Amino acid sequence: MSSIKRRRRISELIHEEISNILQFETRDPRIGFVTVTEVDINADLTIATVYVSLLTADEEERQEILAGLESATPFLKYTLGQRVKLRHTPDLCFKVDNSLAYAERIYDLLAEIDIPPQGDDEQIDDEEEVGFSP
């Protein structure tokens, strides 16, 4: 149980530090508006998967940003190792977090549904017509 708590604490710490490093210390123009949404670390603490949200819908720009993150990975790992005292600094693997786009898609689909609002009186009338008795 403490192992799970430790992994969670380390993930949160890496999340915070990678966010700060990306925001304040990277100079690569390709890494513009990147938000770290989550960090998952494996059981032996050797690989940290960093999920990022990108503020662009263009696939070409997304690939450019991911290339920028990949080229900055050695710097990010070194700087992370200076700030987070672990026996071994985990390797960083960046993945795009599409959950915001997915949520937006669901919201749009729900907005397209045309359901007229029903009051309590109408609902009772409908139930009586179908044969339900209160």
Structural description of this entry:
This protein is α+β, with helices and mostly antiparallel strands. Helices cover 54% and strands 16% of the residues. It has helices spanning 2-24, 59-83, 99-112, 120-130, and strands at residues 34-41, 47-54, 91-96. A three-stranded mixed beta sheet has the order 1-2-3, with helices on one face. The longest helix has 25 residues, at 59-83. The termini are far apart.
Short description:
The protein is built from four helices and three strands; from the N terminus they run αββαβαα. The chain is α+β, with helices and mostly antiparallel strands and 134 residues long. The longest helix is centred in the middle third of the chain and has 25 residues, at 59-83.
